[in-house]
Amino acid sequence: MSHNNENKPHYGQGTAAGHKGNSPEARQNSREAAQEVTDTLPRRHQQMMDAWTPYGAAGAIPEEVAKDLGLPVHVVRPRAGELAKRGLLHPVGRRLGGMGCNVMAYSVVKPAQATEQVAA
FRET pair for 80, CA 20 to 30 Å: which of 32, 70, 72, 110? Predict the structure, then answer.
């Protein structure tokens, strides 16, 4: 029996939600919840891309996008990380977030300096 995982959603590739837990029950609950999120990721990722696009090259922090969408930031931040892993969102620097800490801003536009460094 072959185990082909190439097309299977995977957290490390930004195509599946992560899960964790300290007890067997918590891990099971978390795994089930993550599977429900994973099942809706294509729709959620498109929603995130549509929300980040108007910010252009300047990008936005997850708190801004969460406010635009009327969603809690804890729903938006993981999607940003997944899209960054997939190369669809690009980090464009850190900005002051709502809790007074610097947080990563993302853009749908790949920064020019990253392109120049690759070409050099």
Answer: 32
**Assigned domain for 39 exists:** yes
Residues above pLDDT 90, as percent of the chain = 52
99 and 26 Cβ atoms separated by less than 8 Å: no
CB of 93 closer than 8 Å to CB of 105: yes
For residue 113, the model assigns a pLDDT of 62
Residue 88 has phi, psi (to 5 degrees) of -95, -25
CA distance 114 to 21: 37
Task: Identify whether 5 is part of a domain.
Answer: no
Number of domains the chain contains: 1
Longest dimension (CA), the chain: 52
Global pTM reads 0.68
Q: Which residue segment(s) compose the domain that 50 sits in?
A: 11-119
How far is the C-alpha of 19 from the C-alpha of 47, rounded, in Å? 22
Pick the more confident residue, 84 or 26. Answer: 84
Report which residue type is found at 108.
V
